[in-house]
């Protein structure tokens, strides 16, 4: 990895674009390699003053205007370029693409609109539990550059990849998992087609010897994929439901599908059905991903703050047998809420709590289509804090309250983790 970086930056003017967790990781890597002409930083926000003595730091509203002053730009995920990438004279790249250039043959890459963190975490857990030499990084929170010193020739790398990491990708993992494609991130991409195209780069750059593990509902079009396509189905699993396995805490048909992807990949590493099931039983669900956070006054509470799509909210309701109250809403990014609006009146839910801007959109759509009797179960409550108070006071004993917003947290919370933590605090289960 360091040799590739050294060749990339040698005698070049280098810019770290975005100085969050990944940008700081890139800065450390390039600093350790050396050989560059200069190493500067650009970020919309203020950057630690101790860097300004040796590095030019560009901040503020116009921080993106300087890119062509550099030869090489390492872009952090999520930063929206004001022009098409081909219009820049500089070479713009990112950690994910550089990593896959070097370690793609050892890497299992996972992407999808929903389920990628659970799937990648479960895959890592089972491979590790079954004694394989495996490392984990990427979109889940650990910059992929930070694990390079631990990689050996036989190491398996589980790499969770977001659409932003794949947006301008030139390289791909030898084993790719595409879980699903739904509407999301329209505030960044503008159209669902552009968002899906970013995701599809996980297989578009694969070769003939590579594998794509794919949801049959989202198969590549003819000529779009060179690799061997493996259609994944829950029927592949050596069990039909999680209830057959003692101690398993995963729930829902969506997680059964995620588990099927993991199973099909693990079979390529000679993991037996018995080993797989034993390892599955010891897996702990991730925070904020349909996580059972506790029981209070005989009401179950679930934190699914990761939910930013209509499909994930519907899956959450279906997954919890005693679901009684759902908390929906957040930042409105213009996605299509019609499937959720059509689904909610068919449920057993006693309370549908709608919040923030997207909650207003859902409310207006329900008013226009749902019965007056059903609308008695619908409550618009602007803030999450007040919604939690209502849920605690009104949820029936024996039911479950689920935070599954089907919307982004931005504008109200720093991220979905902060939203989930706030939910726990307000319920009194933090």
Structure description:
With 430 residues, this protein is α/β, with parallel strands linked by helices. Helix content is 34%, strand content 18%. A six-stranded parallel β-sheet has the order 7-8-6-9-10-11, with helices on both faces. α2 (21-33) links the parallel β1 and β2. α14 (384-394) packs parallel to α15 (416-427). The chain is globular, with a radius of gyration of 23 Å. The two termini are 41 Å apart.
Mean of residue pLDDT values: 94
- Amino-to-carboxy terminus distance: 41 Å
* Helix coverage percent: 25-40%
By secondary-structure content and strand pairing, the structural class works out as: alpha/beta
Strands ordered across the widest β-sheet: 7-8-6-9-10-11
Radius of gyration, Cα only, in angstroms?
23 Å
Question: How many DSSP helices?
Answer: 15
Which segments are poorly predicted (pLDDT under 50) over 5 or more consecutive residues? none
Query: What's the count of strands?
Result: 17
Beta-strand level of the residues, as a percent range?
15-25%
* Overall outline: globular
The major sheet is characterized as: 6 strands, parallel
Notable traits:
single chain; about 425 residues; alpha/beta; six-stranded mixed β-sheet; 15 helices
Short description:
This protein is α/β, with parallel strands linked by helices and 430 residues long. It is 34% helix and 18% strand. The strands form 3 sheets. Strands 7-8-6-9-10-11 form a 6-stranded parallel sheet, with helices on both faces.
């Amino acid at each position: 990895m360091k040799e590739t970086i050294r060749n990339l930056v040698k005698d070049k003017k280098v810019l770290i674009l975005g100085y969050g967790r990944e940008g700081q990781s890139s800065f450390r890597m390039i600093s350790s390699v050396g050989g560059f002409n200069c190493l500067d930083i650009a970020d919309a926000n203020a950057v630690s003053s101790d860097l300004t003595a040796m590095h030019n730091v560009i901040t503020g509203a116009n921080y993106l205007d300087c890119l062509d002053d550099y030869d090489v730009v390492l872009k952090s995920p999520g930063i929206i370029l004001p022009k098409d990438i081909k219009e820049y004279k500089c070479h713009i790249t990112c950690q994910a693409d550089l990593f896959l250039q070097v370690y793609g043959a050892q890497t299992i890459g996972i992407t999808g609109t929903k389920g990628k963190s659970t799937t990648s975490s479960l895959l890592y857990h089972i491979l590790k539990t079954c004694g394989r030499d495996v490392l984990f990084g990427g979109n889940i929170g650990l910059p992929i550059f930070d694990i390079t010193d631990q990689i050996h020739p036989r190491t398996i790398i589980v790499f969770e990849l977001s659409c932003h990491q794949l947006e301008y990708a030139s390289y791909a993992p030898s084993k790719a998992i595409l879980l699903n494609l739904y509407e999301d991130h329209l505030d960044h991409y503008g159209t669902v087609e552009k968002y899906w195209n970013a995701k599809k780069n996980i297989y578009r750059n694969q070769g003939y010897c590579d594998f794509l593990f794919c949801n049959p509902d989202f198969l590549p079009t003819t000529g779009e994929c060179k690799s061997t396509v493996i259609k994944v189905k829950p029927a592949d699993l050596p069990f039909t439901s999680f209830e057959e396995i003692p101690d398993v805490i995963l729930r829902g048909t969506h997680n059964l599908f995620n588990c099927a992807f993991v199973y099909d990949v693990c079979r390529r590493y000679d993991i037996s059905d018995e080993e797989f099931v034993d390892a599955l039983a010891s897996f702990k669900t991730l925070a904020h991903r349909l996580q059972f956070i506790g029981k209070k006054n005989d009401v179950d509470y679930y934190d699914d703050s990761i939910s930013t799509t209509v499909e994930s909210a519907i899956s959450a309701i279906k997954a919890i047998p005693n679901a009684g109250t759902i908390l929906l809403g957040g930042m409105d990014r213009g996605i299509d809420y019609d499937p959720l609006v059509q689904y909610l009146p068919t449920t057993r839910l006693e309370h549908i709590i709608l919040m923030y801007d997207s909650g207003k959109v859902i409310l207006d759509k329900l008013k226009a289509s749902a019965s007056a009797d059903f609308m008695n179960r619908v409550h618009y409550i602007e803030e999450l804090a007040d919604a939690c108070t209502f849920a605690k006071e009104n949820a029936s004993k024996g039911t479950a309250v689920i935070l599954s917003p089907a919307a982004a947290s931005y504008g109200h919370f720093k991220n979905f983790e902060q939203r989930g933590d706030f939910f726990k605090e307000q319920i009194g289960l933090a």
